[in-house]
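Entry for the shared binder. Reason: the reviewer on the internal report wants the predicted structure included alongside the sequence.
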Amino acid sequence: MADGSVERARSFGVAARRYGDHRPSYPDALADALEEVSGVALRGARVADVGAGTGIATGLLCARGANVVGVEPGAGMAAEFRRRHPRVPLVRGDGDRLPFASGSLDLLAYAQSWHWTDPARSGPEALRVLRPGGALAVWSNDPDVGVEWIADQQARIEERFGPGWYINEHPRSQGGLEFTTRLLPWSREITIDAHLAKLATHSLFLVGRPGTGDFLSAEQERLRVLFPDGTVKEHYVVDLRIARVGQPKRPWT
């Protein structure tokens, strides 16, 4: 990662509790799609949640009966994970150097975290630790810019702070991995203040960029006019990409 990306990746630790409180979870349809596309039944499956953060995805996987191990490099996020999921094993590490034996996992999950890895390393690592017939699942909760107020907010952020504020890089099909994509729209209703608190947990707002506080204050005023009852309906699209693992035919490049 570039230096700026490293700073943003490390920024979450100081806001771990706020991250866990305000970031959205995932719809039940995600677990259904995981099983359908991957061919892996979650109940009893050996699963690693890489870049687990506070354990939002871990909770979904555990609820379906998976045997989950969290993998998290940051001390602050790891501490919050343990507070929220005291019975789930957690190891310190990252996707570029997975602390698992070869062929030991049924499913390798990256929820909002693939973009913090070096694919030249994390790709081969996925192929190493997954058993034949296992699967790599990469997903993100993306704001649905097909909804007018969300698209307008995204445009204001980019106008103020530049493009690329919302980091989300998808894995490429190469090496022994060919990805199938599913898009899962969903929504939730929360207060304006909760929406802004969620926005403030994104790395752009955590690294102390000049003007972020003023932006959030102005955004609060805009949303109060747009939603006078104080409630917003956030719309998301879960972008799910799954690669089933067979025998790799060529080296990862």
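Summary line for the report: The chain has ten helices and seven strands.
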